[in-house]
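Annual report, structural modelling task.

Input specification for the NAP complex:
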Amino acid sequence: MSTVLNFKQYEMQKAKNYVNEVYEAVKKRDPHEKEFHQAVKEILFSLVPVFAKHPKYMEGGILERLVEPERIITFRVPWVDDHGKVKVNRGFRVQFNGAIGPYKGGIRFHPSVNASIIKFLGFEQIFKNSLTGQPIGGGKGGSDFDPKGKSDGEIMRFTQSFMTELFNYIGPDTDVPAGDIGVGAREIGYMFGQYKRMVGSYHAGVLTGKGIGYGGSLARKEATGYGTVYFVQEMLQDKGLSFEGKTVVVSGSGNVSIYAMKKAIQLGAKVIACSDSNGYVYCKNGINLHTVKRLKEVERKRIREYVKEHPHAEYHEGCTGIWAIPCDIALPCATQNEIDENAAKLLVVNGVIAIGEGANMPSTLEAIDVFLNNRVLFGPAKAANAGGVAVSSLEMAQNSMRISWSFEEVDAKLHQIMTNIYRNSVNAANEYGHPGNLVVGANIAGFLKVADAMMAHGIV
Ligand code: NAP
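The model returned the following structure:
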């Protein structure tokens, strides 16, 4: 008995040393890429039980290869503003891992975009895409361009210039970008138009998130937000709970947030707060989603305008205060590291029962520990927000078949995919000795498929 235990302990220690060596090498190679290190750390250390059980992945150098992108493209994006002034931004595309299919992942336009942010997003995307059960590899892209306050003409000229370089590296069978922060239907439309012009033929499957009239999928716009809520619904159901009558706080008021709010409200919850990068609105009687949608999707205004139409609501400057509002369920749907350790502790003290990460890496590693240690139901981003990329993949399938499914068909497939992701994550967590820990479960479930494909392909 004790020999078996010692052998197991030995295998675990060997696996820990291996993971640690790879992690240290990542930090040494690119010491300034803090966000990338954070994403790598979260995933790598949760894989220790896998390496202990299956040393073949260590011998195959899977981790050393996984943490190094297959390709990073960095390029100049020159454009001319409305005053005739020449501007230059930097464009990125990381093609991180194509073991299970063409690279797939969004494009982000935000001034904070740099190699570290794009690499963290691309790295996460590998596991997320694998979890969806679809044949898609991991990629991500973007630019430090700030779309806020820009005219339509400026957005179009910038986006066209961005695609004039990017088109060299993408294609329906190589790399299929989509939207992300700052890139919605308008930007995808301009990118698609420029791609079509550059290649001289119509490849609907080269981008997803397209308009419905030219190859887009019904329910893609809703998919990430709806999917996050479906995932949380699964976590709640397992505990005999539901959204009915719960209070919900949602950060952000962009694509993911709006449709997370919509689905939560449909399921009987009351959404009491949402935000943008300037501040948040709190309305104890429930946020009026029609107003938020109009302000954000149509008029592109700030969330502070909400209180002009709903004077009983409160507006507060600054983003972090939103987590001090007592709620049953918190859905961070804005950006990375928006919930730190203190915010997590406040949520716990105020009685939160579930967290669903709609955004990518919205909780710091310390915040995640607070949630897990306090037995809060925690749906990690790469599982909970995988609905967007899953429906993007369904959009690619429809493009290939030259057919369009109804909203209800796509929504039903999305719901099923989210249920499968939840179940697979639960099962992997149980199998590898971490019951109830969906961070570990999702990481392991996502990893195994990619690792097996990489092993099958040889050293490439
Ligand atoms: P979006 O439409 O551009 O919306 C982002 C929202 O977050 C905006 O309301 C923005 O406010 C707000 N925001 C940004 N920084 C903030 C901060 N520090 N505090 C509070 N609010 C802040 O982008 P999105 O597509 O919804 O993406 C949101 C998150 O979901 C990102 O992490 C993205 O990577 C992730 N995600 C998106 C998809 C998808 O399908 N779109 C799929 C998976 C994951 P401002 O308007 O003031 O900037």
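The first helix runs from residue 2 to 29.
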